[in-house]
Design brief:
Blueprint: E1 2-8, E2 14-20, H1 21-29, H2 31-42, H3 52-74, E3 80-81, E4 87-88, H4 92-100
Antiparallel strand pairs: 1-2, 3-4
Helix pairs in contact: 2-3
Keywords: Membrane, Transmembrane, Transmembrane helix
Domain PiggyBac transposable element-derived protein: 15-68
Transmembrane segments: 55-75
């Protein structure tokens, strides 16, 4: 299914261009991907490497850590509480320290 989207030209005028409906769905759902990338890059272990498989390993390692953090934060069995009894989520730094220990 083709839809039309408006794009601004260099001269400032608007033109209607055809675009597949999949692009609209992608733009609606990409928010979660952006958050995952932000969390992955916050404490990244990725290193530049001449061998692509080494970089791929560290990339997958970071993704696995972020995914496990999200699972822990959503789990009802791993809730953290403040001194006043309010529920709180563990930070990525706290989680990575506990994971390293």
């Amino acid at each position: 299914m083709i839809r039309t989207v408006q794009r601004r030209q260099k001269d400032g005028s608007l033109n209607d261009l055809p675009a597949p409906s999949v692009s609209e769905l992608y733009n609606k759902c990409m928010f979660g991907v952006d958050i995952a990338d932000q969390k992955r890059m916050q404490y990244s272990t990725c290193r530049k490497a001449k061998k692509w498989h080494k970089y791929l390993f560290w990339f997958c390692f970071d993704i696995a850590v972020v995914n496990s953090l999200v699972c822990i934060q959503e789990s009802p069995n791993h809730k953290l509480y403040t001194k006043r009894g309010k529920e709180r989520k563990s930070s990525q730094m706290e989680y990575r320290r506990a994971l390293a220990q």
